[in-house]
Design goal:
Chain lengths: 179, 291
């Protein structure tokens, strides 16, 4: 696979990778850095003269992104301490499409909620509810068991539950709802 | 009621998570759907970092992959990397990384540290890449003689001639040797490369440099020599393992598999033909060097 093909792939996948990265990292700067690091790792495999062909580059990239994030946080092992307090749900204007200000508040609330989670819990949330992967697929991407994914998902959902009230629904013209 | 733009996709987020899962999906999709990252900048940065990463990981990547996934496609795309490389500058004169990699790679770092020398000025050699022998040690074994030398170092096996045809090939430069051959009918690879063109052992095994986030091997010290060991790894039914020694300013590597090729073949042995001990004997031998 040529470098041009890689760039085409990267351009197509970057927006989705970026969305995942933002939810994982909680800010745009780190998200961009994480996506770049992920693309770099995919690049090395893409161009590896010996490497086994990547059967599913999109899945490979998502896996690399998730594991890179978890690995980096593990090394940092830092400053992130799971918080016991639950975030306040975002204030909304109530009615009509969400304004930019409201959307910013929602994002801020999401970031605050996710910041209190362990990196692996956060990764489960992203894979399950942004990437819409099954429990089994999520377990495979994270290199863990399905049971661990279920456990982490329940714990993580509890964390963001205050954000999941009825006031936040999907715009009917732009997407489908499950309700 | 407040609407979020975008929406969740149908997917695997239902199940035991129920309504909360569906709403989380809607929330995440809605909150991120209108993100407009600078795709050009991110992709360009990713490619640049990928090139640098690939250059730094060359030995780890190439040798591990040779063993794990096979030699398939080596000649077609790896010729410039393992076979057709320009000769690096003599080790005592090198001032920069001269690895014949992508011309657009990030500039090499300036020479870090070098052990004291009483003779020749030193180039960019990574810490830990030396033993106590002189820096102007030469590689004295030709590529054609590599299988024979290995046959003497590890007696009892049958060695074949270097595999010159695609997808294999031979590198026989003054400071770089790469030879693929059969040992007891199993694909075996031996290489010597200048250490200053490669990543350090620690960098090569660093999980941060692996796509899967797992360690790329293990660095151990043995008799004053740093050894990078990995495997056995099994892919497509073929098992392989390898050892690299950081010695005399070179990285001497050997890997052994249990099949005649890296993939799409039936293994001829249950395990790689050469044990880790035998591989270590090969890469730490002084037979490769001389004055």
């Amino acid at each position: 696979m040529s470098e041009q093909e890689f760039e085409e792939f990267a351009r197509a996948r970057t927006p989705q990778l970026y969305r995942s990265a933002w939810l994982l990292c909680g800010n745009h700067h780190e998200a961009e850095d994480l996506v770049q690091e992920t693309l770099a790792k995919v690049f090395t495999k893409w161009r590896s003269p010996f490497g086994r062909r990547i059967d599913n580059p999109a899945a490979y990239a998502q896996t690399a992104l998730t594991r890179t994030f978890i690995s980096a946080r593990r090394r940092r092992s830092s400053g992130e301490i799971p918080r016991d307090d639950l975030p306040d749900p975002p204030e909304t204007t109530g009615g009509g499409s969400m304004s930019a200000t409201d959307l910013s508040e929602v994002r801020l609330a999401i970031v605050e909620a996710l910041a209190g989670l362990k990196p692996a819990d956060r990764a489960v949330l992203v894979l399950r509810y942004l990437e819409d992967l099954s429990v089994e697929e999520t377990a495979q991407r994270m290199g863990t068991s399905s049971g661990a994914v279920r456990s982490r998902a329940l714990r993580a959902l509890e964390r963001v539950r205050p954000l999941l009230d009825d006031s936040l629904v999907v715009h009917p013209s732009k997407g489908t709802t499950h309700d | 009621m407040t609407d979020l733009p975008g929406g969740s996709r149908s997917g695997g987020s239902g199940g035991s998570d129920g309504s909360a899962g569906r709403r989380a999906s809607e929330l995440f999709h809605g909150a991120t759907t209108d993100f407009a990252p600078d795709v050009d900048r991110i992709v360009q940065g990713g490619v640049a970092r990928g090139r640098t990463l690939r250059r730094r990981r060359r030995v780890g990547t190439s040798l591990a992959a040779v063993a794990v996934v096979g030699i398939l496609g080596v000649a077609a795309s790896a010729g410039s990397e393992l076979i057709g490389d320009a000769e690096p500058a003599p080790i005592g004169l090198a001032e920069t990384d001269t690895a014949a990699d992508d011309a657009t790679d990030a500039p090499p770092t300036e020479s870090p540290t070098a052990p004291p020398s009483t003779s020749t000025p030193r180039g960019a050699l990574p810490p830990g890449a030396y033993t106590t022998l002189p820096i102007d040690t030469l590689v004295v074994v030709s590529a054609a003689d590599v299988p024979g030398v290995i046959g003497e170092l590890v007696p009892g096996g049958t060695v074949g001639e270097p595999l010159e045809d695609p997808p294999y090939g031979v590198a026989d430069l003054r400071q770089k040797k790469v030879v693929h051959f059969l040992y007891d009918g199993t694909l075996t690879t031996f290489s010597i490369e200048r250490a200053d063109t490669l990543a350090t052992c620690a960098e090569q095994v660093d999980p941060a440099n692996q796509a899967d986030g797992e360690p790329g091997g293990e660095c151990v010290e043995q008799d004053g020599v740093t050894l990078l060991t990995w495997g056995p790894d099994t892919v497509d039914g073929v098992s392989a393992q390898g050892v690299s020694a950081f010695v005399h300013g070179y990285v001497v590597s050997a890997l052994s598999s249990n099949a005649a090729a890296g993939k799409d073949v039936t293994p001829v042995l249950a395990e790689p033909a050469l044990s880790m001990q035998e591989l270590t004997t090969i890469v730490t031998s002084e037979e490769w060097f001389g004055e």
